[in-house]
Amino acid sequence: MAFLGGTLNTVGAVFLTHAVYSTSEHTATFPHAPLPLDITLELLFSILILSAGIVLSSPTLKPIQWARWAGRIQREGPHGEGKWTREGEEILSEGDPFGFLGLDGGIAGKGEGRRGFWDVRGKRKEYTEWVKEGGSR
Amino acid sequence: MLHPNLLTPPSVIPPPVALQLSQKAPPILSSSPTSSLPWPLSLLFSTESPETWTIHENLFLASLRTGDDVSARKVLDRMTTRFGEHSERIIALRGIYEEALAKNDKELEQVFQGYEKILREDPTNFSIRKRRVAVLKSLGRIPDAITALTVLLENSPIDAEAWAELSELYARQNAWGQAIYCLEEVLLIMPNAWTAHAQLATLYYLSASAQSSNQLQPLTLSLRHFCRSVELNEYYLRGFYGLKVVSRKLLPLLSESSTSSKRNNSEDDDTPPPKLESVKKLEELATSKLAEIIRQYNSRTQGWTGFSEAEVTAARELLDADGKIER
């Protein structure tokens, strides 16, 4: 789909440029004559092709229903979309927007908790114990 | 499995993942994100992006967790030179660093005194106020932590994160009423948070198990909030799991109360118990949704891999136990 959209965009842009250039030349040569029909048609045709190309090459729409949108986040989980930062970290898709509330781990769960209240000593202790046990995966 | 990511770290970081995260320190520390050129040129040749500093912050936390204090210090210094040492966030990160390096409760107490000093100078530093609560929690002084949090919330009542933290602190003390109140405050700020609805429903469910008489009302509320959470998120495993557990608990209670006469009818006007048929339907719905999620997850269907392994296993066990009872 992206390929087809790209092709249509290129073809449309070529036709549009050609139509605009023809118009300019025509008005420069015959300032008082009306524009010939073929130039008008080419202009309209190029705009149609460009519009189709832009629609086809646009990214897929997001669900506009809250439950669907949230369900998709839940189902797919965070996943990469083929973009990386300079540090080599992949930029992931949209995650749970309420994750910062730290409510998904249950009460006194194993999760990370809330960012502002991060329990650094508890996490360090957990890690040292894991290392002492042999660091099994 | 997704590779551990510093930009958006997972919500649960077990030690092996923490190790993998902190091992990313050397390559990141080897190249400087800020340019050393003089001013106008440094703007042109800078390689930093907004993500750079998120990654640095997460790297800092990961290194501290794995005991790589040297890297943590380097990252912290780098952030301090970039944002200045009076930045609220930097002050809080420095606090975390000191907390991590405190060897015993006495040294932690000193960090706490340091926080008090910072707050005397600038009482509006909310990051430090939150760190203060975290230190109190770490010292095991939960009642003090609760008091500190209530003061914080009096000054900033729209801080959803703090309300959620207070709710958890209350829940750890088995103060269900207070915990529920705090989560309702979270819902006032973020009415669409499906996790908050599920957590509130869980609290109602736990408070129902804690009391022996009149379990109908908290269970009804729990059912309602689980329903709302799955209404907001159509594949919310925890919501459906809870829906099933609660409706299974409600069914005998409801059939009991319908056979016996309708007692305290006027008293329960606020939350009338649901109809027996609708609870049955809800349970069927939850079962079918859970079964669908388990099936799709186990067959590794594209777009169904976002669930947590442990949650899916728990759901399967629930369904298996259910099947045995019916057979």
From TrEMBL, chain A:
It is a multi-pass membrane protein. GO terms for biological process: protein folding in endoplasmic reticulum. InterPro entries: EMC_subunit, MMgT. The chain crosses the membrane at residues 43-61. Pfam families: MMgT. Its main location: membrane. Keywords: Membrane, Transmembrane, Transmembrane helix. Coiled coil: none annotated. It is found in: Endomembrane system. The keyword Ribosomal protein does not apply. The keyword Transmembrane helix applies. GO terms for cellular component: EMC complex. Belongs to the membrane magnesium transporter (TC 1.A.67) family. This is Magnesium transporter. It comes from Lophiostoma macrostomum CBS 122681. The lineage of its organism: Eukaryota, Fungi, Dikarya, Ascomycota, Pezizomycotina.
TrEMBL record, chain B:
InterPro entries: EMC2-like, TPR-like_helical_dom_sf, TPR_EMC2, TPR_rpt. Component of the ER membrane protein complex (EMC). Residues 99-207 form the EMC2 TPR-like domain. One of its GO terms (molecular function) is transferase activity. The lineage of its organism: Eukaryota, Fungi, Dikarya, Ascomycota, Pezizomycotina. It is a peripheral membrane protein. TPR repeats lie at residues 160-193. The keyword Transmembrane helix does not apply. This is ER membrane protein complex subunit 2. The keyword Endoplasmic reticulum applies. It is found in: Endoplasmic reticulum membrane. One of its GO terms (cellular component) is EMC complex. Belongs to the EMC2 family. It comes from Lophiostoma macrostomum CBS 122681. It comes from the Eukaryota. Residues 257-279 are annotated as: Disordered. Its main location: endoplasmic reticulum. Keywords: Endoplasmic reticulum, Membrane, Repeat, TPR repeat, Transferase. Part of the endoplasmic reticulum membrane protein complex (EMC) that enables the energy-independent insertion into endoplasmic reticulum membranes of newly synthesized membrane proteins.
